[in-house]
Design a protein that fits this description.
mainly alpha
Amino acid sequence: MRTVTFRQMKEGTRDEYLFLRELERQYIERLPDRILQALRALDDGLTGYRVTRLEHSLQTATRAEADGADDEMILGALVHDLGDGLAPENHSNYAAEIIRPYVRAEVTWVVEHHGLFQKVYYAHFYGEDPELRAPYRDHPYYASCVRFCERWDQAAFDPDYPTRPLEHFEPLVRRIFSRPAFDGSRR
């Protein structure tokens, strides 16, 4: 079978759905390749900064690694801006949804909220409230997100910082995105 015959999902047969499940399994196995491709695409995006979005992402991950972050947080640092191209107004949420099945809740929360937390550095220039993160002060991951933003993300626009290449992080991407999704042992 090369394709299913149904035109509506409710018409599908057991054999067709087993066939599709196997194709989906193979597709999911190639997720690390698509993540790496999406990261490479960040090299051609928003301009005006002294580094590309890819360089920024690599520098954020390099800083996290140098600071002793664990593998999941380093991965979060690497992919935190992955949504910039397709979801510029909610890129943080976009990136968080990509990693949610593969990392612990803290990492997902930090990535999901980093855009809001970053506003402390520049929102006042736009006449916005720079303390939009204040309502989260009692959240258990608040300090982790502040650290992510202060030590790694907001500092990662330096063209002279010794940044590791994507190839350095490729084994990490492959390892984490090859895990079983939503593994309860990581929660």
